[in-house]
Amino acid sequence: MSGARRVAILISGGGSNMVALARSMTGDHPARPCLVLANDPDAGGLEKARAMGIPTAALDHRPFGRNRAAFEDGLIALLDRAAPDLIALAGFMRVLTPRFVDHYRGRILNIHPSLLPKYPGLHTHRRALEAGDAQAGCTVHEVTAELDAGPILGQGRVPVLPGDTEDTLAARVLTMEHQLYPAVLRRVAEGERAPLYLP
After folding, report:
1. Were 41 and a residue from 1, 58, 59, 156 both cysteine, which residue would form a disulfide, CB within 3.0 to 4.6 Å?
2. HAMAP family annotated for this entry (predicted)?
3. pLDDT value for 2
4. Do 110-199 and 1-105 fall under one CATH topology?
5. Strand order in the sheet with 135-142
6. Where are the alpha helices (H) located in 59-132, listed in sequence order?
7. Choice among 112, 125, 141, 178 that is catalytic
8. Is 186 annotated in some ligand binding site?
């Protein structure tokens, strides 16, 4: 598609959200994946991306230790070479510094497995169950320097069912993530930033 927005997708593991995003970017979609980048060379999503014909790269964060600036310099070099218009974090398990976020200001999206502003950070499903919530879900937001606090671009809700465990709730939320993230990405690629709510 001529003139399509270029999307780099950052992953750390199996890449199920990456696959959902990449599969959606076909036909008349206003964007195309230009790179899948992982912070773990063994991330299972890299092979899935290669099988889909998407360029891949990996930069192992572990040799950098606590030197996040040096790690992010490497990420920026790989990303800038791919020249993305948008960056989609899809299970990328590294906290990004304000310097990195500023370099791509307004262009980084993330999906988080809670109905933000509830439960930023980790263990979202456990916290929802412990709180006795009747609903859980996921949020796509613009990434800012404050963790999980950027403008909300979309939310998808699922019921919390009697007898739910962290695993059963996580699986239900993940199914919603695979619907919500592609829908929001398409809207953002078209220039639409008003929040989308599912269902």
Report:
1. 58
2. PurN (MF_01930)
3. 56
4. yes
5. 56-58, 31-38, 5-11, 86-89, 108-112, 135-142, 152-159, 196-198
6. 68-82, 98-103, 124-130
7. 112
8. no
Q: pLDDT tier at 3 (50, 70, 90 boundaries)?
A: confident
| pLDDT confidence band for 158 (50 / 70 / 90) | very high
CATH 3.40.50.170 corresponds to the domain 1-105 = yes
Q: How far apart are CA 117 and CA 40, in angstroms?
A: 29
Domain positions in the chain: 1-105, 110-199
Report pLDDT digits (tens) over 78-121: 999 999 999 999 999 999 999 999 999 999 999 999 999 999 99
Is 61 designated active site?
Answer: no
Query: Which one, of 57, 7, 56, 16, lies nearest residue 34 by Cα?
Result: 7
Say what the pTM is: 0.96
Superfamily, domain 110-199 = Formyl transferase, N-terminal domain (3.40.50.170)
